[in-house]
Amino acid sequence: MYKEIGVFDYSNKVLEKMHPGNFLTTKNGDTINTMIIGWGGVSIEWGKPIFIVLVRDCRATFDLIEASNEFTVSVPLENDLIEAIRVCGTKSLRDINKFEYCNLTPVKGRKIDTPIIGEAELHYECKVVYKQKLEKSAIPEAIKTRYYNPNTSNDFYHTVYYGEIIDQYIYEKE
Length: 174
Ligand SMILES: Cc1cc2nc3c(=O)[nH]c(=O)nc-3n(C[C@H](O)[C@H](O)[C@H](O)COP(=O)(O)O)c2cc1C
Known about the structure:
This protein is α+β, with helices and mostly antiparallel strands. It has a single domain (about 1-170), classed as Roll (Pnp Oxidase, Chain A), CATH 2.30.110. Helices cover about 20% and strands about 40% of the residues. It is built from 5 helices and 10 strands. The protein has helices spanning about 10-15, 60-70, 80-90, 100, 140-145; strands at about 1-5, 20-30, 30-35, 40-45, 50-55, 70-75, 105, 115, 120-135, 160-170. The strands form 2 sheets. Strands 1, 2, 3, 4, 5, 6, 9 and 10 form an 8-stranded antiparallel beta sheet that branches. It has a two-stranded antiparallel sheet with strand order 7-8. β7 (about 105) and β8 form a beta hairpin. The longest helix is centred in the middle third of the chain and has 9 residues, at about 60-70. About 30% of the residues are buried. The chain binds flavin mononucleotide. Flavin mononucleotide (FMN) binds next to β3, β5 and α2.
């Protein structure tokens, strides 16, 4: 059974679970996908509760979120889903269907078209209200060298998506 929660009730859990990682799920038409995020979190902008996520332009997720303008974030709590996190954080939709490969269940979102991950417990449904690609010239050199090195596969900048949280709930055993 899913129980509605206060929008900031579990903000600390979201941040705590950015390591090992949370699921960012996207859908466009019949295509659904999930990837792992380690950056971002719950915040307030323009008086609204906002989930911030950062997605590199090279991800399959980038194409889906650009098309749908919505996403869900699913946070594993007791069920740690470590193996699924490993696969979804390293394999692309372009290689495999991660839901099938990891035996993950897409459960219909309550307010948006994008599903949540049935095996995780804590969920946020979000609609993109603002986005911005990181401005190369504004990033300190040390961060560029570490995270956006042109000599590595990391030579893709992130777009920051601000998703207004329009629903948030947690799975509780009956
Ligand atoms: C712990 C962890 C955190 C990650 N955090 C992010 C992130 O915040 N943003 C991002 O673009 N990629 C991040 N990744 C990488 C993506 O999850 C990974 O490249 C994934 O395979 C992309 O899948 P896709 O091409 O199907 O979208 C992370 C990976 C791991 C393992």
